[in-house]
Amino acid sequence: MSLDTAPDPAPDPALDPAPDPTRTTTDTVGLRPADVDMRTGMTAVALQQAVQDHLHYSLGRLPLGASAHDYYMALAFAVRDRLQHRWMYTSQTYFDLNTKVACYLSAEFLLGPQLGNNLVNLGIESVARTAMAELGQDLEEVLWCEEEPGLGNGGLGRLAACYLDSLATLQRPAIGYGIRYEFGIFDQEIRDGWQVELTDKWLRGGNPWEIAKPEIYYYVSLGGHTEHQCDELGHYWVRWIPHQVVKGTAFDTPIQGYAVNNCNTLRLWSAEAVESFDFQAFNTGDYYQAVADKMRSETITKVLYPNDDPTVGKQLRLIQQYFFVSCSLQDMLHLLDYEGEPVRRFAERCAVQLNDTHPSIAVAELMRLLVDERYVGWDEAWDITRATFGYTNHTLMPEAFEAWPLPLFQQILPRHLEIIYEINARFLAEVRARFPGDEARLARMSLIGEKGAKHVRMAHLAVVGSHAVNGVSALHSKLLTASALKDFHDLWPERFSNKTNGVTPRRFLALANPGLRALLDRTLGDGWVVDLEELRRLEPFADDAGFRSEWRALKLANKQRLVDYIHTHAGVELDPGWMFDTQVKRIHEYKRQHLNVLHIVTLYHRLKQNPALEIAPRAFIFGGKAAPGYAMAKLIIRLITAVAQTINGDPQVNTRLRVVFVPNFNVQNAQLIYPAVDLSEQISTAGHEASGTGNMKFMLNGALTIGTLDGANVEIREAVGAENFFLFGLTAAEVERARYEGYRPMHQVESNAELRAVLELIGSGRFSHGDTEVFRPLVDNLIHSDPFLVLADYADYVACQERIDAVWQDPERWTRMSILNTVRGGKFSSDRAIREYCDELWNVPPVQIRLD
Ligand code: NBG
Predict the structure, then answer these.
(1) Phi–psi pair at 449, nearest 5 degrees
(2) From the alpha carbon of 159, which atom of ligand 1 is closest?
(3) How is residue 343 annotated by DSSP?
(4) What is the Å distance from ligand 1's center to 472 Cα?
(5) What pTM was estimated for this model as a whole?
(6) Please, what's the b/e burial string for 545-572 (b: 16 or more CB within 10 A of its CB; e: otherwise)?
(7) What pLDDT, in 10s, does the model give residues 275-299?
(8) What distance in angstroms lies between residue 159's CA and the mean position of ligand 1's atoms?
(9) What is the SS3 string spanning 70-98?
(10) Active-site residue, 394 included
(11) Which whole number is the average pLDDT over 741-761?
(12) I need a surface site. Which of 393, 535, 591, 763 has the fewest CB within 10 A?
């Protein structure tokens, strides 16, 4: 595929900048003004001149004193100009054709660094490398200067970012709507082995990708009360008299598709006070009150909440959710008005997807906007609403099912509570008609939970208000309809479907693994980048010894990159010849990083007992953040770092085992990690990981998986073949049965001497300088409660690891399996997933963009 770019037009002499004495390098490339269109040209010469121009005019830097960061900013601005050019054509075309737009509502978009990705998608990576080299800069170094926007916690936010990439690449009109958090997910440091959280001031150095749109803003009401009235014609209507009004302003980030001209929008909302200075208040001496109001409004978009945090303050979170949802829906209505479309056509123009329940207040908000503000009758408004929304569920964990206490909800969103009551009354009447006399069912399905303190059930609101509901892997979707949403499935089976997650091959293959990319391009051509099933054609090469040795060399080089990074950032030396056994993801008990640690301690224990034992040398690599208020997760990190310190410092074992915790796992270092891994740990308790997406990134980069039958692991195993996947552990059904029958972890301890020894070792202070207290909560929890069945799966896990050891001893076999993992991973492209969403749920066809 080639970019459909127009030839660079000749520059207008009137606009041509005068020669700049600070530009010293232009002569060296024989720059002729006629070659250059500084804003849109796609040649190295044009880009180089654009960088110089931005350095000069946008940043005010002399080349001599310019830092790598300055060059990063200048190149980013230059690239943004090229995106902007495509964005303008894209918006105009979508507008002219009145296309339907996929609107992806998500409280999180974990974009990761933009520059490298945009260069790949524009097809100007090598052009940029040349341009920067001419300027005396190393592109890789410049790329590392980018402060990544960490506007998400983990998988859910990253999935949203992958989907934006696929939407643009598949040429589907789409807009992502979210929150412009001033502070993203915290930065993690490890001090004395413990996680320490630092605020993520990602906007500190400026964000060259966003374009502030101060002219696009909406007002959002909060609190107060409602008034119900009948006008002289007998029409009943409700007025909401809010206590506070805040203003949401748009900040747009262009999202460029790969090898197409489509450039979509990510629109993030930032909150501010309605008037920055209330002069009235000032004059009456209430200046400080006015400033206080302003500050209070601005806190709404101040910080991203870490998930899994039991201590989190709830009120601001609900306000955040409502704030961005209201701005987004008002924006959609505004676009409709602008195009002269009646509101009753809303669902034909906007397919709105709710990314988990975080934006689910949208159901009530759209009803309010239609009924109260646009005077649409209730029934029609409800038809529009249900035709508009789809809801994706991302978890079965009961604590993640959002439920807002009624008094809190009433206080912040009094009108929405009334609307929810009305939706609920009508909904329960429908349930009653279908299942007469089934009061228990009514109580289970109600939008208002009455167990304990009354609360609003956001997942129920999302399901009732959507025409389509989906889970994110085959197993998860099945479990969803069999458990958490079973009653809803009984009522409306046709609404439910599965959409297995995917990841973008642009970022996680082409960009993250340039060596593999070159090999694939050379062997297959570059079609695989947009059609990942193409990788299949590589399958015969798995039997080609020459190809296998090339494959190994590539992996080794990737491992060396990671070794260098780890040495600098974690102070541990690793040998790239060892097996790299890796678990990177959020730290959570259900993900069972501690099961992984039990295996490491088992090996340590065996080696101490028998120093001559033959085992494959392994580097265990961990990374991931724990929620600041999740004490057990933080203790798991402490256990990893403690075990690491003891093992790495013990010459008797450190020639065969090393352990490292890579601090601050994020998109940037993830791109280094995935391509360098031999063994991917996907070891959650079956039935708990909705899908997982890291598992897919590892697979595509040729890692073998050790995993349970959980989430998308099931489909990964199906795709790669059981013989190429290391399976262990209880199934979801077995987990459920074990719990039902009264699982006793102590029984596992009593019947397994090695497990007992391992737990004793941890409890004895061996890894904590004799401190027998520090890990007691963790060990006690495993022995007496073990909510995620770590001990139940221990023996099988360790046995599976032994099989892995044996395969590793046979490099040819391992390499063959590694190749098959990559070539059979085509299904896990986010392009496949987005095509399913667009074609089966949203009805959003592709639209070609021409640059004329
Ligand atoms: C997460 C799941 C993962 C899944 C991602 C993306 C939440 C609430 N859920 O298993 O835990 O891969 O969503 O779907 O973050």
Answers:
(1) -85, 140
(2) 6
(3) G
(4) 8
(5) 0.94
(6) eebbebbbebbeebbeebbeebeeebeb
(7) 755 555 555 667 777 778 788 889 9
(8) 8
(9) HHHHHHHHHHHHHHHHHHHHHHHHHHHHC
(10) yes
(11) 98
(12) 763
